[in-house]
Write a structure and sequence with these properties.
- The complex is a heterodimer of chains A (about 800) and B (about 120).
- Chain A contains 22 helices and 29 strands.
- Chain A has a domain of about 130 residues: Penicillin amidase (Acylase) alpha subunit, N-terminal domain (Orthogonal Bundle), CATH 1.10.1400.
- Chain A is of the alpha+beta class.
- With about 120 residues, chain B is mostly helical.
- Chain B has one domain.
- In chain B, helix 3 packs antiparallel against helix 5.
- The relative contact order of chain B is 0.18.
- The chains are: A alpha+beta (about 800), B mainly alpha (about 120).
């Protein structure tokens, strides 16, 4: 009896202990998570409560002091660069380990390892685009050409790894605890992979959609709706710029073979609308204090932990401060004692698609001119949580990987397309930032940029010595007219990229007469630039608003530049609404609501401020009208590109009777008037409904900006319904899920005055008080002081740590 | 009396052992404790259970108060539990279960191993 009761109770105990230590479906093991000594309870500590006076870090040549200011921004004071980056790695990992690893796992196509089979298709896509392949080439390139760079990358990785080695269960970031896995070691390769990830986030192409649409509409109509340059082109590099170089000429193939209408496949996922950025610099003579002022705000998906992490990095030779990317070395957008720089995306159709004709089913050779070329087969092993690994064979041609083939996507047609992308070419973007961090003048800036391949960026520059500059940098193929706008036949050698634009012929400007440089993702140049320039996603509103403001402003102050970053003027509405009201006339239908909305629209000042109703009504009306106009195309059920807002407004205004407004399927002949009126009626209906369900339809309440945790299912770790204005195509580009992921304004006087803010917090830990503490300031258009600190400065210190060997 | 003593000893054991050992180490510790201290069945079950449950709940409560973090609320929402108070209760309940069965096992093991007194006389 005694034996029996012991065995029974003991078994219950063992089973109980076992059950609480294993995951239950998607839920993590419950006991390790709830154990208050090791589980999530330990993640409630904020970083200042865990502050250590000294930390031992092997491999340092001298002690390194780190001062955290009141916002938990670390200021690292090292004797040399190798020590600096070793500590940068350690400190970044302390605050952002989970995020930096998760992002590189995503870039490597390894999310299935963490979350299981749900991510398999995503991982296959990532791998088939060749991100890891590109990073491997990048790693080899750095190893061969820049061994001293590799030492710094290794030092950073070692710093991260020493932190991981010191990590106990209690300090493990809470996401690891919930998802039930542990960090693996960091490596230099992962730092390079992270920069490839940025490429992927920022680069798109519409080759498919243009190919389809051209087939349907024909070249002539396509050119009407999609002009290569807009009527009011206000490019990045001022239109007056004279190009005084001899451009490289490329052979334009026989017109007969291109574009080929038979080439159609499914599209790659594209970067989200609303991903873009602003940057500008004004010359000293236009500012109140006589110093140049530089501003930068990259717009990206709004996430927590924030993409950016602020730091000051100092050695005996240089001191730089600004926004870093956790996982990459140095500062990405920032300033030092001599210069400031910033980035915006300068996409220029960097991806092209080539149709591959294989000799037979083995896919070992493919046609190229009159010969058969050999293809490489790369086998991707995708580990899956709770399952056997998945093996995916990806065929690589000399163009690049065959993304879609018989095993992946595109069930409808048996197609093989190879992706040619500058991100697959060996390059060393990391070196650009290392050099820029130490740059002292315009020459150093140019030298740093020469190493930058992808993703192409508009690099703005200003210096204490009074220079302002802009350069569009990336590795750009020299293209013949319309090359790569549509699909190309990979068997025809004439379709190849034949040369690259030399760095010194990339569009750039130094101290232009107008007294400012600026970029907002618009066309890079005026048509006089001697190379073919094309991209689908060029901006038409922010650039004009920005340049108009900068042209008319004088004796500019830092505060005015902050206001400009937060400017809510809705230029698209200002141009479209009067046209729409005119077309609408008195045909507003029945009901009080319609009249009320109309009056609210008429009295609106075109500012998309959070407390305004106008932007909500306009936004809604515009979308309904836009859908009405292009409804015909949407019904084709084929992936095509739609005319942008700018061209659509022009069509409404200049040719309201245009044939494009007529829907072919109906008997009546529709004009702009019909669509605007139908759009209005739909808007009234949907807004009344919305008003009944949700109440207040002021802009912030309607827009509902949310800053989402990197794992969207972790909603409690997100910050939702942020009260802030702005939107797509507005300088303050804060839409539902995108917006200014970092705002910086720097006045290059003596001393330098700097301000910065981002929607998040320095800590990646959702339990820390530094996790999301910047968000309310960011939403109000407020900034943090970003002045450079000296090593012995005492004020506003949170704590200090000394790293010793 | 033994119950109170065992309860206190259990709490002390969890507080001092748990920072260094995972939860299953503490379970073994509680089993051994009950083997040594020899409480009655009920005292072992409830003493060990409340010992580990209260120690866990107390620490969870203390950490919440000390840090002022809203993480328990976020975790509670993530797991569909309402608010952070339920996380403290869940932690206490889990501690109770683990502690109770561990101590009871130890007590029953002792019972089993104990030589029966009558054997001495009946030889």
């Amino acid at each position: 009896m005694k034996v029996f009761s012991f065995v029974l109770v003991f078994l219950i105990t063992v089973v109980l202990g076992y059950v609480v230590s294993i995951p239950m479906g998607p839920a993590p093991p419950v006991a390790p998570l709830l154990d208050p000594n090791h589980g999530f309870w330990q993640n409630m500590y904020s970083e200042d409560q865990l502050a250590e006076e000294t930390i031992q870090l092997e491999g340092l040549s001298a002690p390194v002091k780190v001062s955290y200011d009141e916002n938990l921004i670390p200021h690292i004071f090292a004797q040399n660069e190798e020590d600096l980056y070793r500590v940068q790695g350690y400190v970044t990992a302390q605050h952002r380990l989970w995020q930096m690893e998760f992002q590189t796992m995503a870039a490597a196509g390894r999310i299935s390892e963490i979350v299981g089979p749900v991510a398999l298709e995503l991982d296959r896509m990532t791998r088939r685009k060749g991100l890891a392949y590109g990073a491997e080439l990048g790693y080899e390139f750095v190893k061969e050409n820049y061994p001293e760079m590799l030492d710094l990358l290794e030092a950073y990785a070692d710093g991260v790894n020493q932190y991981i080695a010191s990590l106990d269960d209690a300090r493990l970031p809470v996401e690891y605890k919930i998802l039930n896995y542990r960090p693996e070691n960091w490596s230099s390769y992962k730092s390079l992979l992270l920069l490839k990830y940025m490429s992927d986030m920022l680069v798109g192409d519409r080759d498919l959609q243009y190919s389809n649409l051209r087939k349907i509409l024909g070249e002539e109509k396509l050119n009407v709706l999609f002009p290569e340059f807009p009527a009011e082109n206000d490019p990045v590099i001022e239109a007056e710029r004279v190009w005084d170089f001899e451009p490289i000429q490329v052979e334009n193939p026989d017109a007969g073979s291109y574009p080929n209408d038979e080439l159609v496949i499914d599209p790659l996922p594209q970067p989200e609308e609303g991903v873009g950025s602003n940057n500008w610099a004004v010359a000293g003579w236009k500012t109140k204090n006589g110093n140049p002022i530089l501003a930068n705000d990259p717009h990206l998906s709004l996430n927590l932990p924030s993409l950016w992490y602020s730091m000051q990095l100092s050695t005996l030779e240089h001191t730089v401060k600004g926004a870093t990317l956790p996982g990459a070395l140095g500062v990405i957008s920032g300033f030092n004692e001599n210069i400031a720089w910033g980035v915006t995306n300068a996409t220029k159709d960097a991806r092209d698609w080539y149709k591959i004709t294989f000799q037979d089913d083995s896919r070992k050779t493919y046609r190229y001119g009159s010969e058969w070329r050999e293809a490489n087969h790369r086998i991707e092993e995708i580990k899956i949580k709770g399952q056997e690994p998945y093996y995916d064979t990806v065929v690589y041609t000399h163009y690049g990987p065959v993304v879609y083939d018989r095993t992946f996507g595109s069930e409808r047609q048996d197609v093989n397309f190879a992706l040619k992308w500058t991100a697959h070419m060996g390059s060393n973007e990391q070196l650009t930032f290392i050099k820029m961090n130490k740059a002292k003048n315009h020459d150093d800036y140019n030298d740093a940029l020469n190493h930058f391949t992808a993703p192409a960026q508009n690099f703005v520059f200003a210096s204490v010595s009074g220079d302002i500059a802009m350069r569009i940098q990336g590795k750009f193929p020299v293209k013949w007219e319309k090359q790569g706008k549509f699909f190309m036949d990979g068997a025809d050698p004439q379709m190849e990229w034949q040369a690259f634009i030399p760095n010194e012929q990339n569009p750039s400007t130094l101290n232009p007469e107008r007294g400012f440089v600026s970029s907002a993702n618009q066309h890079p140049v005026d048509p006089s630039y001697p190379y073919y320039v094309f991209d689908n996603s060029y901006e038409h509103y922010r650039n004009r608003r920005l340049n108009n403001r900068l042209r008319e402003m004088n004796s500019i102050t830092i505060d005015q530049m902050k206001e400009l970053q937060f400017d809510d003027y809705y230029l698209h509405a200002a141009e479209a609404l009067p046209v729409m009201l005119e077309l609408l006339g008195n045909e507003i239908g029945e009901g009080e609501k319609a009249e009320k909305y109309l009056n609210e629209l008429k009295s609106w000042d075109f500012y998309a401020d959070p407390n305004q109703k106008g932007p909500t009504l306009f936004y809604n009306w515009w979308n309904k009208t836009y859908n009405q106009i292009w409804n015909d195309w949407m019904e084709w059920d084929i992936s095509v590109v739609y005319p942008n807002n700018y061209e659509t407004v022009r069509l409404l205004k200049l040719s309201p009777e245009s044939e494009f407004f007529d829907h072919k399927g109906t008997e009546a002949i529709e004009t702009a008037r019909d669509h605007v009126r139908n759009g209005f009626a739909e808007m009234v209906e949907s807004m009344s409904e919305w008003g009944q369900e949700e109440g207040d339809y002021t802009w912030a309440n309607y827009k509902r900006t949310s800053i989402q945790h990197l794992v969207p299912q972790f909603r409690p770790f997100s910050v939702e319904n942020v009260y802030t204005g702005g939107g797509r195509g507005i300088l303050n580009a804060t839409s539902e899920r995108h917006g200014a992921s970092w705002r910086m304004v720097v006045e290059l006087g003596t001393p330098i005055k700097a301000f910065g803010i981002y929607p998040g917090g320095q800590s990646g830990n959702p339990g820390s008080k530094f996790y999301s503490n910047f968000i309310s300031k960011w939403a109000n258009g407020d900034y943090l002081n970003f002045d450079l600190r000296t090593e012995d400065q005492e004020e506003n210190l949170l704590f200090q740590t000394t790293f010793t060997n | 009396m033994k119950f109170i003593l065992f309860l206190l000893l259990s709490i002390v054991l969890v507080i001092f052992l748990n920072p260094f050992l995972p939860f299953w180490g503490v379970m073994i510790g509680l089993g051994l404790l009950s083997l040594l201290v020899q409480p009655e069945g009920g005292a072992a079950f409830f003493g060990g259970g409340f010992g580990m449950g209260l120690a866990w709940m107390g620490l969870a409560f203390y950490l919440s108060a000390e840090t002022g973090s809203n993480l328990p609320d976020k975790m509670a929402q993530l797991f569909g539990l309402g608010n952070g108070t339920y996380m403290i209760l869940a932690t206490g309940f889990l501690g109770f279960l683990l502690g109770a069965f561990s101590s009871w096992s130890g007590q029953l093991l002792r019972n089993m191993l104990k030589k029966k007194p009558q054997n001495i006389y009946m030889g």
